[in-house]
Amino acid sequence: MDFHLNDIQKEFKQTARKFFKEKCALEELHAFEKNPHHFSEKLYTELVDLGFVGLVVPEQYGGFDGDFLDLAIVMEEAGWGLFQGPFFSTIVSGVMPVLTHGTETQKETLLPAFTSGEQKVSYAIAEPHAHNKLEHLTLEAVFAGDKYVLNGTKLFVPFAQSVEKLFVVARTDQGAVGSEAGLTVFLIDKATKGIEVKDIPTISADGLCEVQFNHVEVSVEQIVGKAGEGFRVASDMLTFATALKSIEMTGVLSRAVDITSDYVKERHQFNVPIGSFQAVQHRMSDMLTIVEGGRLAAFHAFSRLVEGKDAKTEVAIAKAWLSQEGQKVVTGAHQLHGGMGIDYDYPLQFCYRRFKGQQLAFGSSEVHLHNLGEWLSIKQEEPSKVSSM
Q1: What separation in angstroms does the CA of 374 have from each of 298, 300, 370, 371, 380?
Q2: Are 138 and 127 in contact (CB under 8 A)?
Q3: Rounded to 5 degrees, what are φ and ψ at 269?
Q4: pTM of the predicted model, to two decimals?
Q5: 281-301 burial, b if ≥16 CB within 10 A, otherwise e?
Q6: Which residue(s) pair with 123 in the sheet?
Q7: Are 208 and 157 in contact (CB under 8 A)?
Q8: Terminal-residue alpha carbon distance, the chain
Q9: How far apart are CA 150 and CA 186, in angstroms?
Q10: pLDDT of the chain along its 389 residues, tens only?
Q11: Distance (Å, rounded) from C-alpha 193 to C-alpha 353?
């Protein structure tokens, strides 16, 4: 499969690179992390104005009807720029679920709100006892009259303090715990009475939160898909998110290689650049090989996904490879820098911390390798989607 960019896409990539390079300079990255919400509302508005949020949304719903490869380009450049914010979560848990599973009314109402920046979305899926399997989710959604009442806890919800809506996977049939049945997906207003949000400090400063649902009432109109049949909606969302997160990871790792390449050319030892040492050259070659291999795997998985083909294996391979082998890239970058690499006023430490958050998001390498092992070794009646969180 040919992943070469045409002239227009090359220009688009250059534009995205220039934007994130200018807007995510070191000083700005520090400012974003000091912000209580861990991102810049002003920068998010600029992303909206550039059309990045509505890139793949049809024009009839206020979008730009762009190509999914364009979205992948933007996401990789966002990773290279070390950008953080609810841009990713709004795409994967707002735009895509409504596009693929929403009613016409939901599309007409929600998609323009997403693409205009009026509403941002985050996903509330993982729970204290269910990190990697949708089947074990237990957040309770009880039907009472003409509404559902939700009770329970969700963990690792990105930027929950700042978004207007939450993509919530709840169980409407508690008797079906452990199976794919009985799950329902809701798009809920974050301001709904009974929702409490608490920050979770992380090394990557990525705005993760714990969200408590205390007798939260939601209407049937807020269901995405059908009640009790939310496994497919949630699974599709996680598969797409895992593929797109893998592409973002290639951007972060590529930035680590670029920073290190510049450093070994400039740092002198014994009156010569350390990049002239064979051991350094071998390490740099290994790092670049890992990144390029991960990029090919990620774009291959993403392309199969958007073409409507089964991509569960390809997505798992890409995420497992980048999560596992990517550690060697950031570790190698720090080893070649020495103490300079962990300086707070140097960009490499941002690469490391961004990568650590992405490494665990949507399933670690162990989770995806376990899934691959099962698919390769155990007969499956009907292949399921990647359902790691």
Answers
A1: 21, 22, 6, 5, 9
A2: yes
A3: -145, 135
A4: 0.95
A5: eebbeebbebbeebbebbbbb
A6: 167
A7: yes
A8: 28
A9: 10
A10: 566 788 888 999 999 999 999 999 999 999 999 998 899 999 999 999 999 999 999 999 999 999 999 999 999 999 999 999 999 999 999 999 999 999 999 999 999 999 999 999 999 999 998 888 999 999 999 999 899 999 999 999 999 999 999 999 999 998 889 999 999 999 999 999 999 999 999 988 889 999 999 999 999 999 999 999 999 999 999 999 999 999 999 999 999 999 999 999 999 999 999 999 999 999 999 999 999 999 999 999 999 999 999 999 999 999 999 999 999 999 999 999 998 888 888 999 999 999 999 999 999 999 999 999 999 998 665 544 555 55
A11: 34
Alpha helices in the chain (DSSP H): 7-23, 26-34, 41-49, 68-80, 87-90, 96-101, 104-115, 230-266, 278-306, 312-337, 348-360, 365-377
Backbone torsion region of residue 225, taken as left when φ is above 0, otherwise alpha when ψ lies between -120 and 50, otherwise beta: left
Amino acid symbol at 124: A
**Calpha distance 27→62 (Å, rounded):** 34
Secondary structure element (H or E) that encloses residue 196, with its range: strand 195-199
Please give the helix or strand (H or E) that residue 169 lies within, else none.
strand 165-171
323 neighbors 359 (Cβ within 8 angstroms)? yes
Give the three-class secondary structure for 201: coil
Q: Encoding tokens for residue 135? A: 């089947």
Please state, in angstroms and rounded to a whole number, the distance separating the CA atoms of residues 262 and 273. 11
DSSP β-ladder status, 208-219 and 195-199: antiparallel
Tallying the residues shown for the chain, one arrives at: 389
Is 91 in contact with 53 (CB distance < 8 Å)? yes
